[in-house]
Design goal:
The chain is of the alpha/beta class. The protein has an eight-stranded mixed β-barrel, surrounded by five helices. It has eleven helices and ten strands. It is globular. It has helices spanning about 1-35, 75-85, 85-100, 115-120, 125-135, 155-165, 185-190, 200-205, 210-225, 235-245, 260-275; strands spanning about 40-50, 55-65, 70, 110-115, 140-145, 170-175, 195, 230, 250, 260. Strand 8, helix 10 and strand 9 form a beta-alpha-beta unit. Helix 3 packs parallel to helix 5. Bound molecules: ligand C2E and calcium ion (3 copies). One calcium ion binds near residues 58, 113 and 175.
């Protein structure tokens, strides 16, 4: 039994060492990912809930690791935040997204995710302005998605940054709404143009009564505050119908399309134009 305990202990130590090693390997690799051209931006289209017409797309970063294949941002974005690499990666994504979106039909918007770490960076606004200038992309067609976490804590700085972004003509979306630290006061303290209902609620709708009521409540809240509401993670026809009937103005999810490489998105937009 003593031996078993010891070998069990050694097993966990080995697992732990393996994990630390993987992190270290990824850390080295992530530092070089931009210069080695391993990052890529995929786009998930969004549609108008009433007409079904495309309104634009959300930019979602991917890492094509030379040995490990395509890695999810859920894995490497938190690592990039810890390593102080998220500002550089975020700026790279923004520049790529604006350059790509500059080729879209003129009414389409691109939405780009911003890490809370980026919101805290005093150079953020300058960096965005530089990218808009270099790509010639209009600020009015750029939407920045932030999470409630970004508004916690140092909210004086966050508020100043968001006001500056707004003054330049960009739109601000509150992502993953309803999870984490949702506070209704954010909606009127911060300049928010859009709420994105978290997909965990959408996934359980319309059958789960609790989730359905939350979607209803958020949609009404948005309507009464003059804030647009997007339902994300729409996978089924009944979810689409429910969110649309409850007053969400925009929809996003696998039912419409998975995130796709830019060439594929451009083809979708072109096809819609001729239909
Ligand atoms: P998010 O911003 O909430 O993005 C939506 C995620 O849900 C995406 O995962 C998307 O592929 C997935 N999704 C969309 N529709 C459906 C659906 O119908 N069903 C299901 N099951 N999933 C759906 P992805 O691309 O893996 O991104 C994960 C998260 O990583 C994002 O969540 C966002 O928080 C973060 N992220 C992605 N790109 C960036 C980026 O450029 N910068 C930052 N800071 N974070 C990013
Ligand atoms: Ca390696
Ligand atoms: Ca998002
Ligand atoms: Ca989300």
């Amino acid at each position: 039994a003593k031996d078993a305990g010891r070998s069990c202990h050694r097993f966990f130590e080995a697992r732990m060492a393996e994990k630390i090693q993987l992190r270290r390997a990824l850390e080295q690799d992530l530092r070089r990912a931009i210069s080695r051209d391993e990052l890529e931006v995929h786009y998930q289209p969004k549609v108008d809930a009433r007409s079904g017409a495309f309104t634009g797309a959300e930019a979602l970063v991917r890492w094509n690791h030379p040995e490990r294949g395509q890695l999810s941002p859920a894995v490497f974005v938190p690592l990039a935040e810890e390593l102080g690499l998220i500002n550089a990666i975020g700026a790279w994504v923004l520049a790529r997204a604006c350059a790509d979106a500059a080729t879209w039909p003129p009414h389409m918007c691109v939405a780009v995710n911003l890490s809370p770490v980026q919101i805290m960076d005093r150079r953020l606004v300058r960096s965005i302005r530089k990218i808009l200038k270099e790509t010639g992309y209009p600020a009015e067609r750029l939407e920045l998605e932030i999470t409630e976490t970004a508004l916690l804590g140092n909210d004086v700085q966050a508020l100043a940054t968001l006001k500056e972004i707004r003054a330049l003509g960009m739109k601000i979306s509150l992502d993953d709404f309803g999870t984490g630290y949702s506070s209704l006061s954010y909606l009127h303290r911060f300049p928010i143009d859009r709420i994105k209902i978290d997909r965990s609620f959408v996934a359980r709708s319309p059958n789960d009564a609790g989730s359905a009521s939350i979607i209803q409540a958020i949609a009404r809240l948005g309507a009464s505050l003059g804030i647009k509401v997007t339902a994300e993670g729409i996978e089924t026809e009944s979810q689409r119908r429910f969110s649309s009937d409850e007053g969400c103005s925009e929809l996003q999810g696998y039912l419409i399309s998975r995130p796709v490489p830019h060439a594929q998105l451009a083809a979708l937009f072109a096809k819609a134009r001729t239909e």
